[in-house]
Design brief:
Helix content is about 30%, strand content about 30%. It contains ten helices and 23 strands. A ten-stranded mixed beta sheet has the order 7-8-9-11-12-23-22-20-19-18, with helices on both faces. Helix 7 packs antiparallel against helix 8. Among the domains are: about 70 residues, MutS, DNA mismatch repair protein, domain I (3-Layer(aba) Sandwich), CATH 3.40.1170.20; about 100 residues, tRNA intron endonuclease, N-terminal domain (MutS, DNA mismatch repair protein, domain I, 3-Layer(aba) Sandwich). The mean pLDDT is about 95. The chain is of the alpha+beta class.
Length: about 350
C-alpha cells in the first residue's frame, strides 16, 4: 500500500482502508485516505504492508524511524511498546494516554477498550501528578491504567496504577479511662498497667516495654492525644497539647505531619498502621488485628509522599517488587492540599 509522511501523520491511499483498517484496525479513515499515527505506520512498514514516501522519496525503515523520532516525542519508546502489544495479539490504537488496548478476542467496534497504556522511560523521573492525570483519565471512562516502563535494554515492565480508598475492619475502640504518658526524646511511655494493656490488646497501639508499661511511636501518640485518650507531659512534668506535641515531633522527624496525616487517615478508615521501616516504607497496614498474639498478614505497604513528588522509576520498581515478594500491595499516599489520595501500583503480566 502506498502512503506519504506529512507532518506527524502518515496518509495511506484509499485502497488500504479495507485491508488495514477494516481487518487490522490500523489508523482511521479520513476523507479518501487512511490516516495513521507514526507508530502504526512504522509497524506496518516493518511488516512490509506499507510503502512510505516523503517529498516523493521512498523511506526505508531506518529513514522513516529517524523522521518519526524527530516529529513525535518518545517515539522510539512508544514503538517498542506498540510492537510488543501487537505481536502479543492485542488490538491497539493510539490515544491521548498513548494507547488504548482491547481485551483478547475483542476489537474496535465489537468491544470497549479495556486498558489505557501510558509509556515512560526508566531513566526519566515521573511526576506523581502526571501519573495521577493518566489514572484519572482512565478511571473516568472505567478503564484500567497500565504503566509501561521501557528500560535501557528495551525490555518492558508493565504496572497497573489505580486509585484506592482503603477500608479496614478495626473497631474504633478507646478505653474509658484516660491513659497518661511521658514524652521522652523520640517516643512516649504509658506508665499505668491497665491503660497500657487496653491500648495494646484492643487497639494494637504501641509495643510493650515490659509487663506493665507501653511505648508509643510519635504518630500513635499524637493520634491518641487528639482523640482525648492520652494525656501527655514532657520530662519536666509540663502538659502537652496536640499542637505543641506536633511542633516538637516535627523537629525530630522530617515531614512528620505528612506522615501523621496518612496514619490518621488509615486509623480513621478502620486500619491498624504500624511502622514499615523493615520494608523501606512508612507503614505496614492491617485490615484488622483481633489479638496481638495472632497478628494476621498485613495487606499494604504505604509510603507518604508530597503532591510535587517525582518517582525515580528504579526506586519505585524496587518498592513494588518488594511488596509483591512479601504478598502485599504497594500504596503511595499522596498529599494534595488538605486531602490524601491513595495510589495502588502493582506489576501485571499482559
Amino acid at each position: 500500500m502506498e502512503a506519504r509522511l506529512k507532518e506527524d501523520r502518515v496518509r495511506a491511499e484509499k485502497a488500504s482502508i479495507p485491508e488495514l483498517y477494516e481487518k487490522g484496525y490500523y489508523g482511521r479513515p479520513k476523507g479518501n485516505e487512511l490516516e495513521l499515527r507514526c507508530v502504526e505506520a512504522a509497524f506496518l512498514l516493518y511488516r512490509e504492508k506499507l510503502k512510505i514516501e516523503l517529498e516523493g522519496k521512498a523511506l526505508n525503515f531506518r529513514a522513516f524511524f529517524e523522521q518519526a523520532s524527530l516529529r513525535e516525542k518518545n517515539f522510539e519508546l512508544k514503538y517498542i511498546v506498540y510492537k510488543d502489544l501487537r505481536e502479543r495479539g492485542y488490538y491497539v490504537q493510539p490515544s491521548s494516554t498513548d494507547f488504548r488496548v482491547y481485551p483478547r478476542g475483542g476489537h474496535p467496534g465489537k468491544t470497549a477498550a479495556k486498558s489505557f497504556v501510558y509509556v515512560h522511560s526508566e531513566r526519566a523521573p515521573l511526576p506523581v501528578q502526571e501519573l495521577l492525570e493518566a489514572v484519572d483519565a482512565a478511571e473516568n471512562v472505567h478503564k484500567q491504567l497500565i504503566l509501561a516502563i521501557v528500560d535501557e535494554e528495551s525490555d518492558i515492565t508493565f504496572y497497573e496504577a489505580k486509585t484506592l480508598e482503603p477500608k479496614g475492619e478495626m473497631e474504633q475502640y478507646y478505653p474509658k479511662i484516660r491513659a497518661e504518658g511521658t514524652f521522652l526524646e523520640d517516643r512516649v511511655i504509658v506508665w499505668e498497667k491497665n491503660s497500657s494493656k487496653k491500648l495494646y490488646e484492643y487497639g494494637f497501639y504501641g509495643k510493650a516495654l515490659d509487663s506493665e508499661r507501653l511505648q508509643l511511636s510519635l504518630v500513635e501518640s499524637l493520634y491518641l492525644l487528639e482523640k482525648g485518650v492520652l494525656g501527655l507531659k514532657d520530662r519536666k512534668g509540663k502538659s502537652l497539647k496536640p499542637e505543641t506535641f506536633l511542633k516538637k515531633a516535627s523537629l525530630i522527624e522530617e515531614a512528620f505531619f505528612r506522615k501523621f496525616k496518612v496514619y490518621r487517615a488509615l486509623r480513621d478508615s478502620g486500619h491498624v498502621a504500624k511502622t514499615g521501616f523493615k520494608f523501606g516504607t512508612h507503614f505496614r497496614v492491617y485490615r484488622k488485628v483481633k489479638s496481638p498474639e495472632k497478628i494476621p498478614h498485613s495487606e499494604y505497604l504505604v509510603s507518604a509522599i508530597p503532591g510535587a513528588f517525582e518517582f525515580r522509576l528504579p526506586v519505585m520498581s524496587g518498592a513494588v517488587r518488594l511488596a509483591n515478594s512479601v504478598r502485599k500491595r504497594m500504596l503511595f499516599a499522596i498529599e494534595e492540599s488538605e486531602e490524601l489520595r491513595f495510589l495502588d501500583i502493582g506489576r501485571v503480566k499482559l
